[in-house]
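Quick question, first post here. What does this chain look like in 3D?
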Amino acid sequence: MDTAQRSGALSKIFNPRSIAVVGVSPDRELSWGRRTVDQILNSRYTGELTAIGKRAAPDSRAKWALSLSDMPEVPDLIVVAVPASAAVGVVKEAHDLGVGGAIVYSSGFSEMGTEEGAALERALIEAAGDMPFLGPNCLGIVNKQIDLSITTTVYVVRPAQPAGPVAIATQSGALGFVLADLLDGAGIGYSSYASVGNSSMVDATAAAAEILTHESTRVVVVYLEGSINAVGLAELGDRAREMGKFVVALSVGRSAAGQRAALSHTSAAAGDHLLLEALCRQHGITLVGSDEDVVTGVLDALRNRPLPPNPNICILTMSGGAGGLLADGFANLNVRVDPLRPELIQAIRDMGIRDAGVSNPVDLGGNFITLIDKLPDLIALICAQQDIDGLVLYLTFGDRAMEHYQKLATIIGGATKPSWFIWACPPQGAVEELGMPGVVFTTTAGFLRHIEVATAAHPPSAVIEAPASRKVGLREGTSVLTEVKASALTTAAGIRHVDTASSADPLDVVRQVEKRGWEGPFVLKIDASDIPHRAKAGALRLGVTREILQEGLESLSEVAGTLSTDPDCVLVAQPMLAHSHEIALGFVRDEIFGASLIVGMGGADAENPHAARRALLLPTSRDEARSLASWASVALDVPRDEIESAIVGLGDLIESHPEYAEIDINPIIVHEGHLVAVDALIIIND
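> Answer (accepted):
Ran it through. Tokens below.
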């Protein structure tokens, strides 16, 4: 079943007409079964509630039965609050009776990390059959639309914001309520909550898809850990977009690149989190990395003013220093601060703003207070410009202009484009009184942190296929096309490769060099399928002059005889091109995320975990390729049209060769302002 089908089967879990709690001990008030019954009774839930245990509590307001089979009618939902050893039998009984769904609190399954626990969880899944259940090892659900809380946490009895537009689906039950508390502190109430625990049958994406359908939900927060259901997450993002709703995902457990058993630099650099970022970006999901960033992502979603990729922001400030800080911070986030067009500058002058430094940032000067009446019109003018994607206003103090500052905050909050107000060093309590989190900030650092999250998701235009089942990396049944053969294919795909002379005979290579009229210096290589990383193996020579070319090739030929048994082994000579910097372009076929293009810094930085890189899941669209190229043109300083052509060409090559497992084009140098590949590798699933 896809995510929508799975979530549709969950309706009786989230909106049950009748509930049975199995494992209620009347004498143990702190037992999970008893606490659950008490919690439901103390709410305004109007459905039927039955407590199942060895005997009823004398003061119980719930119905009571010895077992599920003793109930006069089959309940929509059961809550399993018995030890793991007994939970399997309870779930089997519920399935056989036709119960609609279950919440399994019980722990002692695969989370224990033992084979016994894993076997018990497999038995639980088998016992459930087609009956959906949350858990095991979960913390229940909350649905404030029907005043239902099935959980044991004390958090739900605390005073809190009224039910709001946010829903939470989480693998970690406790962290889900922590997120609810942080949202509550920002003035945002939650309406639904689901803890999926071990996700044996229902994972967080399926639970999120169900609560996304609730009328009160505008934003669903998903907490992910461990293995990611890439297809389910993509479906969730697409479904939210179709409904005009939003998804904010918090993920932990980033995989180290070294964990990937891969041959190519590209594959080694393609950590799970890089591919997860690509999935979220392409499917409109805001991916964040901390609990506080969840609040930022939700606030931005509720405002529904998304920034495009590589946005152009206009800065209005009364401090040149602050404008510089913001511009530098934006540059680190690949946000542009483009100079204003001459026509816009003239329009600003025509408004009577003549003493300001009109460029971008727009420096209103220390005497900006004389212009404060003009700022609303200036904000409207800038927001009306098609080439400007957002605006930030930076002002300080405001003690003598409180009314103006409050008005400006309101205008910024209602602007037609994403806009923010940094009110630095405000009078005590002034910003809190406004109650505009996510719009008004008191520091540039806090604002830039917000922007980093706000640029994490963009409107999607691609849908990924089910992930391939094959793992990447050199293994049995895999062959390698090294540079001479691989470059012919990548060149045909439109990716320019450095001119190459190759032969098994050193003298033949020399003759090819002479025929081409190359003067040197040269790069010499051994090209063999069993020497993929030539620098590490001593199969590479740099800066070889014309005078010692033959000697260098003969020396390398002797090395090849000791390193390689590849019958197609050849020697390679190439002109050593001067260049400014290096990038890498590649492809991996991941068993979780499927086929992915990756572009980033190249050469020695190809596997640097801190180097700039970005992924694009396939199949994709020209718009997504163009968006990736725009990012690369700024972050990697490469010609935008050429990198776009390379991305599209590589994508077409992959589509026509489903047997390709990896492609590694690294490095691609920037030579005289153009991209030139100087190495290539293709791994094929035979």
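The first strand starts at residue 18 and ends at 22.
The two ends are 31 Å apart (CA to CA).
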